[in-house]
From TrEMBL:
The UniProt record lists the keyword Amino-acid biosynthesis: yes
GO molecular function: chorismate synthase activity
Family membership: Belongs to the chorismate synthase family.
Keywords: Amino-acid biosynthesis, Aromatic amino acid biosynthesis, FAD, Flavoprotein, FMN, Lyase, NADP
Protein name listed in UniProt: Chorismate synthase
Gene that this polypeptide is encoded by: aroC
Catalytic activity entry: 5-O-(1-carboxyvinyl)-3-phosphoshikimate = chorismate + phosphate
């Protein structure tokens, strides 16, 4: 299994969507770190399902229990282990279709890799449900980073074909980032937000789903974090971001748009701002040579449409080897983007702390 990640900080996730519990083990945290449990609960609540008509009706509070590595309000330096119990499973929804490979899920690949012994209920270990422990770890890492002045925040850049072009993350400050985190559907333009919500509601009414793009900024990063090549900021971040189910693309700075620019347009020219080195533009997203340059670290992730939809779809019966049609029954998000925001931020926090 690939459930272990990290160099300086090592994570190990465990559990299945419809199992008894899910959880995470974090090794490498320094002793004596004071944790704000209310802060962690707030971050968990941002990802938790069942809070909006824009999300799945499965209600999970995502309440966590710390089992080890935490004593008298501070980390002990030994592995920090947290568990989140599953309380609202509808496992019977998956019994009738257990041999039908849901399109664009991990059912087929998981069945082959694990020789048919994988837990198929709700996607098992392949489920987005397993991102809850990542949010826990990210909330711990965020607290450590914020004590150093490093702040992470995101907003919804697009839903379907509708893009919010009213805002530039390069100009963002700490106050705006924190304000965005207080919103379950964070966008800068409220009119755009209402239109995006309508797109999601319409998709649900049509028994379909939509995807979108999340844009994230990390500010106040010191110059010099990261390494060239294999442990670059981009490669480290990208590995964790692509570990999030439904992420199909990652770009930094101007991303693919930079290919449309000439070198004279794409280059980030320097200037002195007092005793600090700045750049007039940030097309490279705050990273040069794999190393932070002191400008905001800006990246975007593409989230695919939720593959669980109620429309009739073509598939196969893996047991009989015959073609079939199926209609997915259960409780599913018409758009996973709003609930993915804290997961993306968590991945960023984990990756950056691992690099620091």
């Amino acid at each position: 299994m690939s459930g272990i990640w990290g160099n300086n900080i090592k994570l190990s996730i465990f559990g299945e969507s419809h199992g008894k519990a899910i959880g995470i083990n974090i090794d490498g945290l320094e002793p004596g770190i004071e944790l704000d449990l209310d802060y962690i609960n707030k971050e968990m609540g941002r990802r938790a399902p069942g809070k909006s008509k824009l999300a799945t009706s499965r209600k999970e509070e995502d309440s966590f229990q710390i089992l080890s590595g935490y004593f008298n309000g501070r980390t002990t330096g030994t592995p920090l282990c947290a568990i989140i119990y599953n309380t609202n499973q509808h496992s019977k929804d998956y019994e009738k279709t257990k041999n039908l490979m849901r399109p664009s899920h991990g059912d087929f690949t998981g069945y082959i890799k694990y020789k048919g012994f994988n837990d198929y209920r709700g996607g098992g270990h392949f489920s987005g449900r397993i991102t809850a422990p990542l949010v826990f770890a990210g909330a711990v890492c965020k607290q450590i980073l914020e004590k150093k002045g490093i702040v992470i925040g995101s907003h919804i850049k697009s839903i379907g074909k509708l893009e919010d072009k009213s805002f530039n993350m390069v100009d963002i400050d700490e106050k705006v980032l924190i304000t965005l985190r207080e919103n379950l559907f964070p966008t800068i333009d409220e009119k755009i937000a209402l239109k995006m919500k309508d797109i999601i509601i319409k998709a649900r009414e049509e028994k379909d789903s939509v995807g979108g793009v999340i844009e994230t900024a990390v500010i106040n990063l010191p110059v010099g974090i990261g390494e060239p090549f294999f442990d670059s900021v981009e490669s480290t971040l990208a590995q964790l971001l692509f570990s999030i189910p439904a992420v199909k693309g990652v770009e930094f700075g101007s991303g693919f748009h930079i290919t449309e620019l000439k070198g004279s347009e794409a280059n980030d020219e320097y200037y002195m701002d007092g005793d600090k080195v700045r750049t007039y533009s940030n097309n490279n997203g705050g990273v040069l040579g794999g190393i932070t340059n002191g400008m905001p670290l800006v990246f975007r992730v593409a989230i695919k449409p939720t593959p669980s939809i109620s429309k009739v779809q073509r598939t196969i019966d893996i047991d009989s080897g015959k073609n079939r049609e199926m209609e997915i029954i259960g409780r599913h998000d018409p758009c996973i983007v709003p609930r993915a925001l804290p997961v993306v931020e968590a991945a960023a926090a984990i990756a950056i702390l691992d690099l620091c």
